[in-house]
């Protein structure tokens, strides 16, 4: 994480507030003067189009975009010059400064904000309503909105305004990856299909590697609570529209479901039997130490981002052990024998929304036309398949990639990259999952499509208003650490399971159910809309 | 010149008053000095005094978009929200304990170190030790905490390997709430003792060497010279540094805390600043600046009272003070 001490920075913050915010930006809509690109314009890859506009993203995305081979083509096709403005080094840095930039009038012609910011500040005049522009100038965006009601519903406010266009994200999720060579050595010939089989296999691995010091078969990084779907313990919105648990698009859990208690009991047994890495459970595992363990055989199974198997294979795995092999197993069956599905990462990125500054009204038509090209068939082909003849080629109407993902992805920053990476932020656009999976490395491609088409589940995205967001954040600030801390205590035995019911009462008192109520209200409002 | 002769040399008007020289003339007379002062004054005005006006947002439901002039006034709502928070006392306890331990160890160790270092007669050794002790100050908190994680890991960490070699079971230092405060304080000591010692070493250079000579002639041992000459001579500096340290009593190193923070140690690691950070600055696009400013203002007022109190106490009992 990249934050700075809030208290230390107070004088600077206060100065910024005092200097920039006394009058507010006021959203001076109506001005036709072209805005100057305040902030650090990081240049453009264009050789000079007839139309230009400034566009702000985090610096890392700008840097990636400048290297992409399809970017100059896009600018040429649209006869546009885009002045990329760095709004902060990474996402955390960007979002921290964004509010001040909007308020102080430093926002360029266009830029990335969150959907809530787009609506709240859009209503106050900070961003343009794109609906009339789309109707007039953007037939491709209009058609896309008509064909994708969920997307359209999310970007349209209750008064029918559209203040921003959101990025679609590929359908991807975490996967369970395992060392197939270690499984073989432990005598495991078939992949586990249930939690019980998985536990038995972890025990076999432990037995086979008992002489390896500090070997824990199941290891990982970040939060250790996985497989809520196998216990029917995940957060969700049921068929009747009822929200269960603090809603996190299936990536969280429903504390009050019977399955969640069983899930914790399962983790307790893993911890007691030394089947799970205690550093992971305690929350002290770093990415570095997790990687080292997976590369050096101190762990055999993990649950992580779906491209991690390929990363481990190409970052030292086979060098450490010639037999090193990583594979992916399918999600487990639920306790009643149904095949569970992994929750996918948000497919509609409410944190990646392009908006237009009303001070740049004179350029708005041009910007929306540029975005319409991005949404067009030609634009999609270019961004999803890259430059014809360089990244891919057309064979009987079917696009085939002629570049290698592992070669392109390994290229250093500052060199032309022929790859296509739809998961990266460029210009918010629709996604083409098949193209995305098709460009991946050989190992990832071998399971991606089947896994995400058949064993992953998309959860609806919720939209909160400013008050809901504020209250939710305040409550989460109290509830989340208490939740995390107590779950670790239960699993490590620092707190007895006999206190489970009092723990549930504590969480209710801290505001757990209030957060669920906010999520329910947000869902109901969206449904009504 | 005696006091009497100095008094008689002052020129006086007929009514006994001193001749009035306009303040502008006085400034003009010392213009070079005032010019030297000017950059500092401008810096203070811009970066210290002007931002103070921004603190009014503590009494508002501040929106960056609306600005200070158009944001809603909410009185003491933000202050009340913090004071009535269920976590308030836990946060205050954690913050104060961390700060007190810090004061207890981080403050005296540089003094002791400087006293010993001052006794080294070989200049090259003295310089080498001083440089070495100063070095950790330049290591970032992220690197420092990362080193700590590696050293203390229960799986292959050096400290636990040593413990194991003595037949002692591994200790999960970074996941034990009882170890959080000692580790935080130890890191601060390691990072700051060399840097802070410079101030005391500088104060020691101004001690009159005749005092040491006289003490030596009177047969004072090395310990006696430290306690009877060096320590009393730098007492004023120690007192001033102590008063300043008291002013920082509610300030913790948030960087370090957040890096050492994990679900296992929330009970002791969650402090006012980390809570405010979660509340005010992780709000998905709408930072709650007003809440952050209100808590910051409360901390500042309390720190001001503590500094004034300590200064008064010091003036009364030690004859040394900050102002």
From TrEMBL, chain A:
Instruction: List the protein's name.
Output: ABC transporter substrate-binding protein
What InterPro entries does UniProt report for this protein, alphabetically?
Answer: Bact_solute-bd_prot1
Q: Which key words are in the record?
A: Signal
Mind telling me which SUPFAM superfamilies this protein's record contains?
Answer: Periplasmic binding protein-like II (SSF53850)
Signal sequence span per UniProt? 1-23
